[in-house]
Amino acid sequence: MGSTAVVVGGGIGGLAAAIGLCRIGWDVTVVERASTLEDAGAGISLAANGLRALDELGVGEAVRDASRGQYRGGTRTPRGRRLARMDGAALENAVGSPIMGIPRSTLHRLLRDSLPAASLRIGSEATSVEQIGPGTVRVGCGDTVLDADLVVAADGIGSKVRNRLFPAHPGPVHSGSTVLRAITEHAVDLPTDFELTWGRGVEFGHIAFLDGRAEWHAVLSLPAGTRFADPLTELRRRFHHWHDPIPALLGATRPAAVLHHDVNELRTPLPSYAIGRIALLGDAAHAMTPHLGQGACQALEDAVVLAAALGTEPTVETALARYDAERRPRSQAVARAAGQAGRMGQQLSHPVAVALRNSAMRLTPSRITMRMLLRHHAWVPPHLT
Asked: 353 pLDDT exceeds 90?
Protein backbone atom coordinates (compact mmCIF):
# COMPACT_ATOMS: atom_id res chain seq x y z
CA MET A 1 0.00 0.00 0.00
CA GLY A 2 1.10 3.60 -0.60
CA SER A 3 2.21 5.90 2.16
CA THR A 4 1.84 9.50 0.95
CA ALA A 5 -1.32 11.57 1.21
CA VAL A 6 -2.51 15.07 0.46
CA VAL A 7 -5.34 16.44 2.59
CA VAL A 8 -7.23 19.26 0.90
CA GLY A 9 -8.55 21.56 3.63
CA GLY A 10 -7.09 22.53 6.99
CA GLY A 11 -10.25 22.66 9.08
CA ILE A 12 -11.09 20.35 11.98
CA GLY A 13 -11.85 17.35 9.74
CA GLY A 14 -8.80 17.83 7.54
CA LEU A 15 -6.41 18.23 10.46
CA ALA A 16 -7.90 15.20 12.22
CA ALA A 17 -7.49 13.12 9.05
CA ALA A 18 -3.87 14.24 8.75
CA ILE A 19 -3.18 13.30 12.38
CA GLY A 20 -4.71 9.87 11.88
CA LEU A 21 -2.66 9.22 8.77
CA CYS A 22 0.53 10.35 10.52
CA ARG A 23 -0.22 7.98 13.38
CA ILE A 24 -0.27 5.00 11.00
CA GLY A 25 3.03 6.06 9.45
CA TRP A 26 1.98 8.00 6.37
CA ASP A 27 3.66 11.15 5.05
CA VAL A 28 0.96 13.81 4.90
CA THR A 29 0.69 17.27 3.38
CA VAL A 30 -2.26 19.49 4.32
CA VAL A 31 -3.14 22.06 1.66
CA GLU A 32 -5.08 25.03 3.05
CA ARG A 33 -6.06 27.98 0.88
CA ALA A 34 -6.26 30.50 3.75
CA SER A 35 -3.09 32.58 3.91
CA THR A 36 -3.14 32.68 7.71
CA LEU A 37 -4.66 30.45 10.36
CA GLU A 38 -6.19 33.05 12.63
CA ASP A 39 -7.95 30.62 14.94
CA ALA A 40 -11.25 32.28 14.08
CA GLY A 41 -14.67 30.93 14.89
CA ALA A 42 -17.07 30.67 17.76
CA GLY A 43 -17.67 27.65 19.98
CA ILE A 44 -18.28 23.97 19.54
CA SER A 45 -19.79 21.14 21.57
CA LEU A 46 -18.11 17.74 21.49
CA ALA A 47 -20.11 14.66 22.40
CA ALA A 48 -18.62 11.38 23.62
CA ASN A 49 -18.28 9.98 20.09
CA GLY A 50 -16.16 12.94 18.99
CA LEU A 51 -14.08 12.80 22.15
CA ARG A 52 -13.41 9.08 21.66
CA ALA A 53 -12.22 9.82 18.15
CA LEU A 54 -9.89 12.49 19.55
CA ASP A 55 -8.57 9.93 22.05
CA GLU A 56 -7.57 7.64 19.17
CA LEU A 57 -5.85 10.60 17.52
CA GLY A 58 -3.85 11.24 20.68
CA VAL A 59 -5.32 14.67 21.51
CA GLY A 60 -8.33 13.73 23.61
CA GLU A 61 -6.74 14.55 26.96
CA ALA A 62 -5.57 17.98 25.80
CA VAL A 63 -9.02 18.77 24.42
CA ARG A 64 -10.74 17.71 27.64
CA ASP A 65 -8.36 19.86 29.69
CA ALA A 66 -9.34 22.88 27.57
CA SER A 67 -13.10 22.15 27.66
CA ARG A 68 -15.95 22.65 30.09
CA GLY A 69 -18.39 19.85 30.74
CA GLN A 70 -22.06 20.52 30.11
CA TYR A 71 -23.70 19.21 33.28
CA ARG A 72 -26.45 21.77 33.84
CA GLY A 73 -28.84 23.12 31.26
CA GLY A 74 -31.62 22.15 28.93
CA THR A 75 -34.32 23.72 26.80
CA ARG A 76 -36.63 26.63 27.66
CA THR A 77 -39.31 28.87 26.20
CA PRO A 78 -38.57 32.58 25.63
CA ARG A 79 -40.18 33.39 28.99
CA GLY A 80 -37.91 30.90 30.72
CA ARG A 81 -40.27 27.98 31.27
CA ARG A 82 -38.40 24.69 31.34
CA LEU A 83 -39.20 22.26 28.51
CA ALA A 84 -36.47 19.69 29.08
CA ARG A 85 -33.59 19.31 31.50
CA MET A 86 -30.13 18.11 30.54
CA ASP A 87 -28.50 15.69 32.97
CA GLY A 88 -24.81 15.74 32.12
CA ALA A 89 -23.93 13.41 35.00
CA ALA A 90 -26.32 10.74 33.72
CA LEU A 91 -24.90 11.10 30.22
CA GLU A 92 -21.38 10.77 31.63
CA ASN A 93 -22.38 7.58 33.45
CA ALA A 94 -23.84 6.16 30.25
CA VAL A 95 -21.08 6.98 27.76
CA GLY A 96 -18.10 8.06 29.86
CA SER A 97 -18.29 11.80 29.23
CA PRO A 98 -20.70 14.70 29.28
CA ILE A 99 -20.86 16.93 26.23
CA MET A 100 -17.86 19.30 26.36
CA GLY A 101 -17.80 22.94 25.25
CA ILE A 102 -14.64 24.46 23.78
CA PRO A 103 -13.80 27.47 21.60
CA ARG A 104 -13.43 26.28 18.02
CA SER A 105 -10.12 28.15 17.76
CA THR A 106 -8.71 26.21 20.73
CA LEU A 107 -9.68 22.86 19.22
CA HIS A 108 -8.18 23.90 15.89
CA ARG A 109 -4.92 24.95 17.55
CA LEU A 110 -4.62 21.70 19.51
CA LEU A 111 -5.12 19.67 16.34
CA ARG A 112 -2.66 21.81 14.38
CA ASP A 113 -0.03 21.54 17.11
CA SER A 114 -0.21 17.74 16.85
CA LEU A 115 1.11 17.84 13.29
CA PRO A 116 4.66 18.54 12.08
CA ALA A 117 4.79 22.19 11.02
CA ALA A 118 6.32 21.16 7.70
CA SER A 119 3.18 19.21 6.78
CA LEU A 120 1.04 22.37 6.58
CA ARG A 121 0.99 24.32 3.30
CA ILE A 122 -0.86 27.51 4.23
CA GLY A 123 -2.05 29.91 1.53
CA SER A 124 -1.95 27.14 -1.07
CA GLU A 125 -5.20 26.38 -2.88
CA ALA A 126 -5.77 23.04 -4.56
CA THR A 127 -6.85 24.07 -8.05
CA SER A 128 -6.99 20.56 -9.51
CA VAL A 129 -7.23 16.99 -8.27
CA GLU A 130 -6.98 14.13 -10.74
CA GLN A 131 -6.04 10.48 -10.73
CA ILE A 132 -3.24 10.14 -13.30
CA GLY A 133 -2.65 6.42 -13.00
CA PRO A 134 -3.77 3.33 -11.11
CA GLY A 135 -1.78 4.32 -8.02
CA THR A 136 -1.22 8.10 -8.15
CA VAL A 137 -3.38 11.15 -7.54
CA ARG A 138 -2.05 14.56 -8.58
CA VAL A 139 -2.97 17.80 -6.82
CA GLY A 140 -2.23 21.08 -8.53
CA CYS A 141 -1.55 24.05 -6.26
CA GLY A 142 -0.73 26.98 -8.49
CA ASP A 143 2.77 26.39 -9.83
CA THR A 144 3.25 23.39 -7.54
CA VAL A 145 2.25 19.81 -8.27
CA LEU A 146 1.89 17.22 -5.50
CA ASP A 147 1.70 13.53 -6.36
CA ALA A 148 0.34 11.18 -3.72
CA ASP A 149 -1.03 7.71 -3.16
CA LEU A 150 -4.20 9.19 -1.61
CA VAL A 151 -6.10 12.47 -1.56
CA VAL A 152 -8.51 13.28 1.26
CA ALA A 153 -10.95 16.02 0.32
CA ALA A 154 -11.89 17.86 3.50
CA ASP A 155 -12.62 21.14 1.75
CA GLY A 156 -15.95 21.85 3.37
CA ILE A 157 -19.55 22.18 2.31
CA GLY A 158 -18.61 23.96 -0.90
CA SER A 159 -16.10 21.24 -1.81
CA LYS A 160 -14.64 21.72 -5.26
CA VAL A 161 -13.29 18.17 -5.17
CA ARG A 162 -16.78 16.80 -4.55
CA ASN A 163 -18.10 18.86 -7.44
CA ARG A 164 -15.48 17.33 -9.76
CA LEU A 165 -16.18 13.78 -8.60
CA PHE A 166 -19.98 14.12 -8.74
CA PRO A 167 -20.79 16.83 -11.32
CA ALA A 168 -24.45 15.78 -11.52
CA HIS A 169 -25.00 16.07 -7.76
CA PRO A 170 -27.14 19.10 -6.80
CA GLY A 171 -24.71 20.11 -4.07
CA PRO A 172 -25.56 22.00 -0.87
CA VAL A 173 -28.93 23.70 -0.41
CA HIS A 174 -30.19 26.30 2.02
CA SER A 175 -31.84 24.73 5.08
CA GLY A 176 -34.22 27.66 5.62
CA SER A 177 -32.21 29.08 8.51
CA THR A 178 -29.41 31.55 9.11
CA VAL A 179 -27.18 31.69 12.19
CA LEU A 180 -25.48 34.55 14.00
CA ARG A 181 -22.94 33.71 16.70
CA ALA A 182 -20.15 35.16 18.77
CA ILE A 183 -18.01 34.65 21.87
CA THR A 184 -18.52 37.17 24.65
CA GLU A 185 -15.75 39.67 25.28
CA HIS A 186 -15.59 38.86 29.01
CA ALA A 187 -16.90 36.36 31.51
CA VAL A 188 -20.66 36.20 32.05
CA ASP A 189 -22.44 34.90 35.16
CA LEU A 190 -24.33 31.88 33.84
CA PRO A 191 -26.55 29.49 35.81
CA THR A 192 -26.11 26.74 33.21
CA ASP A 193 -23.31 25.21 31.14
CA PHE A 194 -25.47 24.88 28.03
CA GLU A 195 -28.94 26.01 27.13
CA LEU A 196 -31.32 26.26 24.19
CA THR A 197 -34.37 28.49 24.03
CA TRP A 198 -36.98 27.88 21.34
CA GLY A 199 -39.37 30.53 20.10
CA ARG A 200 -41.46 30.46 16.94
CA GLY A 201 -39.02 29.86 14.08
CA VAL A 202 -36.07 30.98 16.19
CA GLU A 203 -33.54 29.51 18.61
CA PHE A 204 -31.08 31.11 21.01
CA GLY A 205 -28.45 29.05 22.77
CA HIS A 206 -25.19 29.33 24.67
CA ILE A 207 -22.14 27.24 25.56
CA ALA A 208 -20.10 28.17 28.64
CA PHE A 209 -16.29 27.95 28.48
CA LEU A 210 -13.66 27.26 31.12
CA ASP A 211 -12.60 30.90 31.41
CA GLY A 212 -16.14 32.13 32.10
CA ARG A 213 -16.77 33.48 28.64
CA ALA A 214 -19.50 31.94 26.52
CA GLU A 215 -20.43 31.32 22.93
CA TRP A 216 -23.97 32.23 21.97
CA HIS A 217 -25.84 31.57 18.77
CA ALA A 218 -29.11 32.80 17.33
CA VAL A 219 -30.71 30.71 14.58
CA LEU A 220 -33.44 32.47 12.60
CA SER A 221 -35.77 31.13 9.91
CA LEU A 222 -34.90 33.54 7.10
CA PRO A 223 -34.26 33.38 3.35
CA ALA A 224 -30.72 32.75 2.14
CA GLY A 225 -28.66 35.91 1.83
CA THR A 226 -30.51 37.86 4.50
CA ARG A 227 -28.10 40.23 6.24
CA PHE A 228 -28.44 43.07 8.76
CA ALA A 229 -26.68 46.42 8.64
CA ASP A 230 -26.01 46.15 12.39
CA PRO A 231 -26.40 42.48 13.40
CA LEU A 232 -25.89 42.92 17.15
CA THR A 233 -28.40 45.77 17.38
CA GLU A 234 -30.90 43.68 15.44
CA LEU A 235 -30.45 40.74 17.82
CA ARG A 236 -30.79 42.95 20.88
CA ARG A 237 -34.06 44.23 19.44
CA ARG A 238 -35.35 40.71 18.80
CA PHE A 239 -34.26 39.17 22.12
CA HIS A 240 -34.43 41.98 24.68
CA HIS A 241 -37.60 40.53 26.24
CA TRP A 242 -36.33 36.92 26.37
CA HIS A 243 -35.33 35.37 29.68
CA ASP A 244 -31.97 35.93 31.40
CA PRO A 245 -29.10 35.51 30.62
CA ILE A 246 -29.85 36.13 26.92
CA PRO A 247 -29.78 39.96 27.13
CA ALA A 248 -26.60 39.75 29.24
CA LEU A 249 -24.86 37.54 26.66
CA LEU A 250 -25.64 40.01 23.89
CA GLY A 251 -24.59 42.89 26.14
CA ALA A 252 -21.18 41.26 26.71
CA THR A 253 -20.46 41.00 22.97
CA ARG A 254 -18.51 43.35 20.70
CA PRO A 255 -20.31 44.14 17.42
CA ALA A 256 -17.23 43.14 15.40
CA ALA A 257 -17.25 39.66 16.99
CA VAL A 258 -20.57 38.60 15.47
CA LEU A 259 -20.34 36.02 12.67
CA HIS A 260 -23.25 35.50 10.29
CA HIS A 261 -23.70 32.50 8.00
CA ASP A 262 -26.56 30.84 6.22
CA VAL A 263 -27.16 27.25 7.33
CA ASN A 264 -26.71 25.00 4.31
CA GLU A 265 -26.80 21.23 4.10
CA LEU A 266 -26.03 18.40 1.70
CA ARG A 267 -29.63 17.26 1.60
CA THR A 268 -29.20 14.82 -1.27
CA PRO A 269 -26.93 12.01 0.01
CA LEU A 270 -23.83 11.15 -1.98
CA PRO A 271 -23.72 7.68 -3.56
CA SER A 272 -20.16 7.16 -2.32
CA TYR A 273 -17.52 8.84 -0.16
CA ALA A 274 -14.65 7.56 -2.32
CA ILE A 275 -13.76 7.30 -5.99
CA GLY A 276 -10.48 5.71 -6.99
CA ARG A 277 -7.90 6.99 -4.51
CA ILE A 278 -9.84 10.11 -3.51
CA ALA A 279 -11.88 10.13 -0.29
CA LEU A 280 -14.38 12.73 0.88
CA LEU A 281 -14.50 13.60 4.57
CA GLY A 282 -16.51 15.83 6.90
CA ASP A 283 -18.73 18.52 5.40
CA ALA A 284 -17.46 17.70 1.92
CA ALA A 285 -19.13 14.30 2.32
CA HIS A 286 -22.13 14.90 4.58
CA ALA A 287 -22.68 18.56 5.54
CA MET A 288 -25.58 18.65 8.00
CA THR A 289 -27.51 21.23 9.97
CA PRO A 290 -26.20 22.01 13.48
CA HIS A 291 -29.31 20.96 15.38
CA LEU A 292 -27.73 17.84 16.92
CA GLY A 293 -24.25 19.32 17.42
CA GLN A 294 -22.79 16.41 15.47
CA GLY A 295 -21.10 18.03 12.45
CA ALA A 296 -17.58 18.13 13.86
CA CYS A 297 -18.04 14.84 15.71
CA GLN A 298 -18.93 13.06 12.48
CA ALA A 299 -15.86 14.52 10.78
CA LEU A 300 -13.70 13.24 13.65
CA GLU A 301 -15.28 9.80 13.30
CA ASP A 302 -14.49 9.91 9.57
CA ALA A 303 -10.84 10.66 10.28
CA VAL A 304 -10.36 7.74 12.66
CA VAL A 305 -12.23 5.21 10.51
CA LEU A 306 -10.26 6.27 7.43
CA ALA A 307 -6.92 5.91 9.20
CA ALA A 308 -7.89 2.56 10.72
CA ALA A 309 -8.94 1.19 7.33
CA LEU A 310 -5.73 2.37 5.66
CA GLY A 311 -3.70 0.91 8.50
CA THR A 312 -5.15 -2.59 8.17
CA GLU A 313 -6.41 -3.15 4.61
CA PRO A 314 -4.01 -4.49 1.94
CA THR A 315 -4.66 -1.74 -0.64
CA VAL A 316 -5.81 1.85 -0.72
CA GLU A 317 -8.81 0.82 -2.81
CA THR A 318 -10.00 -1.81 -0.32
CA ALA A 319 -9.41 0.62 2.55
CA LEU A 320 -11.53 3.30 0.90
CA ALA A 321 -14.26 0.78 0.14
CA ARG A 322 -14.33 -0.13 3.83
CA TYR A 323 -14.31 3.54 4.83
CA ASP A 324 -17.29 4.22 2.58
CA ALA A 325 -19.19 1.16 3.80
CA GLU A 326 -18.69 2.11 7.46
CA ARG A 327 -19.11 5.87 7.32
CA ARG A 328 -21.79 6.56 4.73
CA PRO A 329 -24.74 4.83 6.45
CA ARG A 330 -24.01 6.29 9.87
CA SER A 331 -23.15 9.84 8.88
CA GLN A 332 -26.10 10.10 6.50
CA ALA A 333 -28.45 8.80 9.21
CA VAL A 334 -27.11 11.45 11.62
CA ALA A 335 -27.56 14.12 8.93
CA ARG A 336 -31.21 13.09 8.44
CA ALA A 337 -31.78 13.16 12.20
CA ALA A 338 -30.24 16.62 12.44
CA GLY A 339 -32.55 17.94 9.74
CA GLN A 340 -35.55 16.42 11.48
CA ALA A 341 -34.47 17.93 14.81
CA GLY A 342 -34.36 21.35 13.17
CA ARG A 343 -37.81 20.98 11.65
CA MET A 344 -39.29 19.93 15.00
CA GLY A 345 -37.25 22.44 16.98
CA GLN A 346 -35.98 25.81 15.82
CA GLN A 347 -37.84 25.89 12.49
CA LEU A 348 -41.28 25.09 13.92
CA SER A 349 -43.31 28.30 13.79
CA HIS A 350 -47.06 27.60 13.76
CA PRO A 351 -48.37 28.44 17.26
CA VAL A 352 -50.44 25.25 17.58
CA ALA A 353 -47.54 23.07 16.45
CA VAL A 354 -45.18 24.87 18.84
CA ALA A 355 -47.60 24.37 21.75
CA LEU A 356 -47.98 20.67 20.97
CA ARG A 357 -44.20 20.19 20.72
CA ASN A 358 -43.62 22.00 23.99
CA SER A 359 -46.20 19.87 25.79
CA ALA A 360 -44.68 16.71 24.36
CA MET A 361 -41.20 17.75 25.51
CA ARG A 362 -42.36 18.44 29.06
CA LEU A 363 -44.09 15.03 29.22
CA THR A 364 -41.29 12.96 27.67
CA PRO A 365 -39.53 10.82 30.32
CA SER A 366 -35.81 11.54 30.73
CA ARG A 367 -34.94 7.94 29.85
CA ILE A 368 -36.46 8.44 26.38
CA THR A 369 -34.42 11.58 25.84
CA MET A 370 -31.29 9.76 27.00
CA ARG A 371 -31.96 6.89 24.60
CA MET A 372 -32.16 9.35 21.70
CA LEU A 373 -28.82 10.90 22.67
CA LEU A 374 -27.11 7.53 23.03
CA ARG A 375 -28.04 6.61 19.47
CA HIS A 376 -25.50 9.20 18.31
CA HIS A 377 -23.08 9.46 21.25
CA ALA A 378 -22.43 5.78 21.98
CA TRP A 379 -20.04 5.18 19.11
CA VAL A 380 -16.85 3.19 19.68
CA PRO A 381 -13.92 3.97 17.36
CA PRO A 382 -11.60 1.42 15.79
CA HIS A 383 -8.09 1.38 17.22
CA LEU A 384 -5.27 2.90 15.26
CA THR A 385 -2.31 0.53 15.07
From this structure: yes
What count of Cα atoms within 13 Å lies in the side-chain half-sphere of residue 63?
A: 34
Report the mean per-residue pLDDT for the chain. 94
pTM for the predicted model, two decimal places: 0.95
Total of domains in the chain:
1
What CATH number is attached to the domain comprising 293? 3.50.50.60
pLDDT digits (tens, 9 = 90+) for 274-299: 999 999 999 999 999 999 999 999 99
Residue span of the structural domain in which 319 resides: 4-70+97-173+266-345
Peptide bond before residue 247 is cis, with ω within 30 degrees of 0: no
Q: In Å, what is the CA distance from 380 to each residue of 54, 102, 181, 243, 301? A: 12, 22, 31, 38, 9
CA distance 229 to 202: 20
Distances (CA, A) of 203 to 78, 159, 197, 342, 382: 9, 28, 6, 10, 36
Contact 195, 245 (CB under 8 A): no
